[in-house]
Amino acid sequence: MRRKLHDVNDHLAPPADAATELADVIGALEEDIIFGRLKPRERLIEEGLARRFAVKRHVIREALAELEDHGLVAKERNKGCMVRDFAIRDVEQIYEMRELLQERAARRIRLPADALLVNRLTEIHRAHVAAISAGDLRRVFHLNNEFHDALFAACDNPYLTESIAQYAYLAHAIRSYRIADPVLLRQAAEEHAQMIAALDRGDRAELVRLCVEHINPAKEAYLRAYRLQLGSYAG
Q: How far apart are alpha carbons 235 and 232 in whole angstroms?
């Protein structure tokens, strides 16, 4: 099962300062990948990262190993670590799993939804829209995750909820293509509003449709960029 980035194994827990240092490095690299500051196949050089974060190289190695374990970083023999590059087949298969899991969760949510859930999602949605308007992409990203975590937790199956989160995490580098596009961001916010409305009126078919189709713009944006890159190599 997916572990949260800032967790450590209890029986192997390093001192608090070391754990914080490691978590800070992991969090910073994760955000660099999410927001496209580190591109697919970009090399992650231990020495340079150690200078950037003012930490010892073993901390960088641990951080890269953690990110590799979560699927954001790949290690190639004699080349070291780089941001993971998802080929077309990888993207299609990851998103097939995301669609299956999210459809199943949407079918399990009790409708009409509890008022507490609707109110919670509405609060998150308003904050998400405000963050988009302010151009605060870091907050946009975290509020988007908060919205979906709260929505899918209502399926009342923690294993299904955790699997949805795991595949969403694996798709970080793919999802970054939506975050970078203001039009797609506004579309995402509108779809959140439509999900809330479907929950409130008990419209199962619309909720399922939205939960499946909502993730596709990021996939399509990534695939367009990937194909353009392949074309430039071929040229």
A: 5
**Average of per-residue pLDDT across 57-79:** 89
- Amino acid letter, residue 108: R
Q: How far is CA 33 from CA 38, 87, 90, 140, in A?
A: 5, 16, 17, 15
CATH number where 75 lies: 1.10.10.10
CB atoms within 10 A of CB 199: 26
The CATH number of residue 113's host domain is: 1.20.120.530
The answer, as to whether pTM is greater than 0.85, is no
CB 86 within 8 A of CB 93: no
Least confident of 40-44, 77-81, 97-101, 228-232: 228-232
**79-113 residue pLDDT tens:** 889 998 888 999 999 999 999 999 999 999 999 99
Number of H helices, E strands in the chain: 11, 3
Residues 64 and 108 in one domain: no
